[in-house]
Design brief:
7 helices; five-stranded parallel beta sheet; alpha/beta; single chain; 5 strands
Length: 202
């Protein structure tokens, strides 16, 4: 059975989604603690990259896509032409991911990569709307042991990551779509701040 929805109702749905997204961003704009946290993370990323270290990203599902997106902004370019920066998303090697998930369990896919290629002074950014993704929590544990700075992009509660990371950027929402939209916005702000500080604003 095909349900017919009026054009008016569809337009209202679109407007509601946009208004919901705007509200979350307005809440971020009014959250001085979160804004200071974004600045602190930008400082940490700048310090790492300026000292020859790298910024790593990880996530699952849509957050994996966001991780890859942000790593590309740093390793490629953002607002202007400049030297590439050492940054990558940890899920992009599918042979590695499937082998480790098969042999050790999916919870270990990021932790083992950090153990193998992470170094003290690097920054690890984990994106999880719930803050409870087990494979990212394991990666943070390994990162801590290696002296790697840890950053969590989460939703409002911070989940289990709240008390396990150096920096928590918890978007004030419980709606997965709205959280992910804000994660990209925050990530873009970080890329802009880091790029301008390292290479000079154009």
């Amino acid at each position: 059975m095909i349900l017919h929805v009026s054009a008016k109702k569809i337009k209202m749905k679109i407007q509601q989604a946009i208004q919901s997204s705007i509200k979350v961003k307005q809440d971020i704009l009014n959250d001085s603690t979160l804004l200071e946290g974004i600045q602190d993370v930008a400082d940490a990323m700048f310090t790492a990259l300026n000292q020859g270290h790298k910024v790593l990203f990880c996530g699952n599902g849509g957050s994996a896509a966001d991780a890859q997106h942000l790593a590309a902004e740093l390793s490629g370019r953002f607002y202007f032409d400049r030297d590439p920066l050492p940054s990558e998303a940890l899920h992009c090697n599918t042979s590695y991911m499937t082998a480790v998930a098969n042999d050790y369990g999916y919870e270990e896919v990021y932790a083992r990569m950090i153990k193998g290629s992470g170094h003290a002074g690097d920054v690890l950014v984990g994106l999880s709307t719930s803050g409870n993704s087990k494979n990212i929590l394991r990666a943070f544990e390994t990162a801590k042991d290696k002296g790697i700075v840890t950053v969590a992009f989460t939703g409002s509660t911070g989940g289990l990551m709240k008390n396990t990371v150096d920096f928590l950027l918890n978007v004030p929402s419980v709606d997965t779509a709205r959280i992910q939209e804000s994660h990209i916005m925050i990530g873009h702000i970080l890329c802009q701040l880091v790029e301008e500080r390292l290479f000079g604003a154009k």
